[in-house]
Design goal:
Length: 225
């Protein structure tokens, strides 16, 4: 059976409180899941303006889908192609994706929409370069006022890259922190017990497998640092 993490979004707090739009989204997602025999593991609801790029509930939904190996399901694809942040988050998470109003619009569609957004960014860059060239032709002085300082700063790139890799690894481990804390708070402390409970909850390892005492030991060691 396919397992699902549902994500809903409303634009205003008023809609969030009243349920306007939200109930229709739930019915669409639940209808699709019922039709296909999918199990909904968790629901996440975002209340945010269309102008905002940060979506904490989306990040939480993607994290849950990632650690459980579930599929992310939303109700509608409307405005998706204009939200680059949403597209980027979906792609970077590697989550399987389905929209209830257009079930055939899966991960491949997301890639297409992302390609369109990337093309638009490229066109913007080209227009910016053309504008700079025109400004230079008019005698406007261009260039970096810091001179060689930018080169010296670039030399720090290797250290920054190493730090970025380290941060990514730490972020991956932190994805499991909440569920591990929940299991521990329930009184389960042994490595074998933690492994059994993680497997029972459907949580998968970073490589998509089952938990064992050894893999739990490594995870707990990093979480407790």
């Amino acid at each position: 059976m396919c397992r699902v993490v549902a994500y809903y979004r409303v634009s205003t707090e008023g809609q969030g409180r009243s349920g306007l739009g939200l109930e229709a989204q739930r019915l669409a997602v639940e209808g699709l899941c019922s039709q296909r025999g999918w199990e909904i593991l968790a629901n996440f609801t975002e209340v945010e303006s269309g102008r905002r790029n940060d979506r904490p509930e989306l990040c939480a939904a993607l994290k849950r889908a990632k650690v459980t190996g579930a599929r992310l399901v939303i109700a509608k694809l409307d405005r998706l192609s204009r939200n680059v942040a949403f597209l980027a988050a979906l792609q970077e998470s590697g989550a399987r994706f389905t929209a209830a109003d257009m079930p055939e619009a899966d991960e491949f569609t997301v890639h297409i929409l992302a390609a369109v957004a990337q093309r638009e960014r490229k066109l913007i860059s080209e227009r910016t370069k053309a504008a700079l060239a025109a400004a230079k032709a008019r005698g406007i002085k261009l260039g970096n006022p810091n001179g060689a300082r930018s080169i010296r700063l670039a030399a720090k790139g290797t250290t920054a890259a190493v730090n970025a890799v380290r941060r990514n690894a730490e972020a991956r481990v932190s994805e499991y922190a909440e569920v591990v804390d929940d299991v521990r708070n329930a009184g389960i402390r042994s490595l074998q017990g933690l492994a059994r409970e993680l497997n029972a909850r459907g949580i998968i390892t970073p490589r998509g497998g089952k938990w064992h005492a050894s893999s739990v030991r490594n995870l707990v060691a990093r979480l407790d640092r």
